[in-house]
Specification:
By secondary structure, the protein is mainly alpha-helical. The protein has a domain of 120 residues: Protein Binding, DinI Protein, Chain A (2-Layer Sandwich), CATH 3.30.910. The protein is 59% helix and 3% strand. It contains seven helices and two strands, in the order ααβαααβαα. It has a two-stranded parallel sheet. The N and C termini lie far apart (119 Å). 9% of the residues are buried. The N terminus and C terminus are likely disordered.
Length: 233
C-alpha cells in the first residue's frame, strides 16, 4: 500500500472514531429521546396494500380498463384476421399480393404499438392505485397510532415468509420489507388499520354457476319403435 493511501486510510479511521465517540458519549446520551418498548407499533403496509387492491372499487377500475382495452384492440384483431384469410387464398403471382401483405404488416405494427401503450397505461393505473392506497394507510396508521398511545409506527411485514422469489428485485424487496426480529402481535396495528379503512379481509369468491344434477338412469326398457312396412312385405 502506498504511503499516501495509508495516510488517507488512517485519517479516515481516526475521524470515524471521533464521530462515533461523539455520538455515543455519555454527555450526549442524556439529551437523546429514550424509546420505551410501549412506544413502538408496527403495521404491515404491503399486506394492507394487497387488501386495498382486492377491494371492489379498485378491482372494478382494473376490470373496466381491461374491457375497454379489449374493445379498442378488437378492430385491429379483426382486420389482421381478415388479411390473413385473404393472403392464404392468394396465388403467388397475384398482383395485389404485395399490397395486401403490406397492409397486413402495417396492421400488425399498429397492434403491437397499441398493445404497448395499453400496457403502459395499465401500469400507470396500478401505480395510481398504489399511491392512493398508501396515502390512506399512512393517514390511518398515524391516527390509530396516536389513539393507541404509540410514538413511532414502523412499516414492516410480520413474518419471515418470502412471497416474491422469482426475481432478484422481488426477493430483495421482500427481504428489505422484513425485520430480523419479528415484532410481537400486541404492537401490530395492521388489522386496526384495515378495519378503519374498510378494506376486505380476503378477495371475494368467484361466482360459480350451479351444476345440474345428472338424471338418474332407469332400468325400464326403451319403448319399441315401429318400422313402417315396405312394399316388399
Amino acid at each position: 500500500m502506498k504511503r499516501t493511501t495509508q495516510l488517507f486510510t488512517l485519517t479516515t479511521a481516526i475521524l470515524a472514531t471521533i464521530i462515533i465517540t461523539m455520538v455515543v458519549s455519555p454527555a450526549d446520551a442524556s439529551k437523546r429521546y429514550t424509546i420505551e418498548s410501549g412506544d413502538i407499533a408496527f403495521v404491515d403496509v404491503f399486506k394492507l396494500i394487497d387488501k386495498a387492491l382486492i377491494g371492489e372499487e379498485l378491482a372494478q377500475q382494473r376490470e373496466d380498463f381491461n374491457t375497454q382495452s379489449r374493445e379498442d384492440l378488437a378492430g385491429l384483431n379483426q382486420q389482421i384476421a381478415a388479411l390473413e384469410a385473404q393472403l392464404s387464398t392468394m396465388q403467388q403471382d397475384d398482383p395485389n399480393g404485395a399490397a395486401t401483405y403490406q397492409q397486413y404488416q402495417n396492421a400488425n405494427s399498429q397492434l403491437q404499438s397499441a398493445s404497448q401503450q395499453i400496457s403502459q397505461a395499465y401500469e400507470r393505473l396500478i401505480a395510481q392505485q398504489l399511491s392512493i392506497a398508501y396515502q390512506e394507510i399512512y393517514g390511518a396508521a398515524n391516527e390509530i397510532g396516536a389513539q393507541e398511545g404509540f410514538v413511532f409506527v414502523f412499516a414492516t411485514r410480520s413474518d419471515g415468509e418470502l412471497i416474491q422469489t422469482d426475481s432478484i428485485t422481488g426477493i430483495t424487496q421482500e427481504i428489505l420489507a422484513r425485520p430480523l426480529m419479528t415484532p410481537p402481535s400486541g404492537v401490530d396495528i395492521t388489522e386496526l388499520v384495515r378495519i378503519k379503512l374498510g378494506y376486505p379481509e380476503k378477495a371475494p369468491e368467484p361466482e360459480v354457476e350451479p351444476v345440474a344434477e345428472p338424471v338418474a338412469e332407469t332400468t325400464e326398457p326403451a319403448p319399441a319403435t315401429e318400422v313402417p312396412a315396405t312394399e316388399d312385405e
